[in-house]
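Handoff note, outgoing to incoming analyst
You'll be picking up this chain. Sequence as last confirmed:
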Amino acid sequence: MQRYMNSMSNGGSIAARSGEVLSDAELMSAVPSLFATEAHESRSSRFVPIASSAVLDSLRAADFEPVFAQQARTRIVGKENYTRHMLRLRHRSLMSSAGRAFEVILTNANDGTSAYKMVAGVFRFICLNGLFTGDTFAPVHVRHTGKTVIDQVRDGALNILDMAPRALAAVDEFKGITLSRDEALVLARAAHMLRFDKAYTVDPDVQDGAPVLNPDLAPVQPLDLLRPRRSADQHNTLWHALNIVQENCVKGGQKGHVVNADGRLKRQKVRAVNGIGQAESLNRALWTLTEGMAALKSAT
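Most recent structure output, in case you need it:
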């Protein structure tokens, strides 16, 4: 059975083929920190380790199966068995005939670099995009301290599962909202500011203090984020706009130019967002922006 796997140079990641799930042996080979049951030696006695593998077993008992895993890279020998990791789990009964599925997204670390967190997510099969829901879905955070850590983890998992109907209903809402080109560009501009924040500065002469884009500092412009990568995405709905913008922001690959410090034009390719924390933050911010656009449209 073949899998898509990256080496530890990228921190280690593995994804199941469509319709398949990952076994413990496959997860262990790519993301060993997922199976840490003790804390890294750098942690104090007050640090309470949370075994992600035990949470995985509990979610499997609730018919969730792992389909993607990734862990952060580290330069400290031996710490790769404890470092930050992410696990995406999918419930077969919560897959839609429209090509999307509800997911539980777990992040954790037993080396002190991350609290335990669970977030609701939606996966879109046509473009293999994994979206994180925004703040309105109340992600579960559990610190590695205190006597009730395990109880908090268990209760948090149940809360995330209860979010499935709301998350999938939000997708249906987004699909039912039509955007004009100008409205889609508003979403793309906000996403561009998130992805290429160093290309923006605050102009003191502007009354509202809105950030101003210097196009020379970004290899692609907001309009480029609206370019679909497949004909199936050529629809003017909020859902399609979110997925197009998200894919272009996260997967990268676009080629453009920037002006370097000495004023010379330099070719540059947009890098993919591979970091666990950065990808999560960007995805959740994009979802929140989309919710905001949906609210504006419903108010008009």
